[in-house]
């Protein structure tokens, strides 16, 4: 069978179209999908690297403070930690010139690898005295301390005599259930699971 010129062009056009479809299906689309996948993986890797670098920078900032707390303030003995907190609160209250009305401890609670030890104290004093006590709590370097609740009321209304109810907590690392103090990393997310 002899094909006319027109039929030959139609055949070549159809063959070329089929070849282009096959090339697109078996070469271009997989190549394009792979390039997109690589770009996505690259973006994820860059974001992860940025996060890791930020964590390393934070670790460099936190490590000196953490080491100071571990070696000077964090204890593995809960009773000693509770005693240190009580004595520190009394010393800070005395230095601020406030009178201590009520001071009692709360039962220790497990908080991740730590034991959280709390105290509640009610003090009476002037605005200046209460602010000096709060400043002492904020600037504490001998033990890690957090003010978890603060309530200040005038005694009587309209005077500078204030009553402050303060709840504070500190931390202890138990030897038996937690990581050792030297090898503990506060930035390790696995610690808080």
How would you describe what is shown here?
It is a single chain. The protein is of the alpha+beta class and 193 residues long. The chain folds into 2 domains: 48 residues; 103 residues, Ribosomal protein S6/Translation elongation factor EF1B (Alpha-Beta Plaits, 2-Layer Sandwich), CATH 3.30.70.60. It is 52% helix and 24% strand. It contains 3 helices and 4 strands, in the order ααββαββ. The chain has a 4-stranded antiparallel beta sheet with strand order 1-2-4-3. A hairpin with a 7-residue loop joins strand 3 and strand 4. The longest helix has 69 residues. The C terminus is likely disordered.
Helix/strand layout:
Blueprint: H1 5-73, H2 78-96, E1 99-111, E2 114-125, H3 127-138, E3 145-154, E4 162-172
Antiparallel strand pairs: 1-2, 2-4, 3-4
Helix pairs in contact: 2-3
Keywords:
52% helix, Alpha-Beta Plaits, single chain, alpha+beta, 24% strand, 193 residues, four-stranded antiparallel β-sheet
Derived structural class? alpha+beta
Which oligomeric form is depicted? single chain
Q: What is the terminal-to-terminal distance?
A: 80 Å
Largest sheet: 4 strands, antiparallel
Radius of gyration based on Cα positions: 34 Å
Which spans have pLDDT < 50 for at least 5 consecutive residues? 176-182, 189-193
Order of helices and strands: HHEEHEE
CATH class of the largest domain: Alpha Beta
Mean pLDDT, nearest integer?
83
At the fourth CATH level, what is the homologous superfamily of the largest domain?
Answer: Ribosomal protein S6/Translation elongation factor EF1B
Enter the CATH topology name of the largest domain.
Answer: Alpha-Beta Plaits
The percent of residues in helical segments reads: 40-55%
Which sequence of strands runs across the widest sheet? 1-2-4-3
At CATH level 2, the architecture of the largest domain is 2-Layer Sandwich
Number of domains as seen in the coordinates: 2
Discrete helix count:
3
The total beta strand count reads: 4
The coarse overall form would be: rod-shaped
Proportion of beta-strand residues:
15-25%
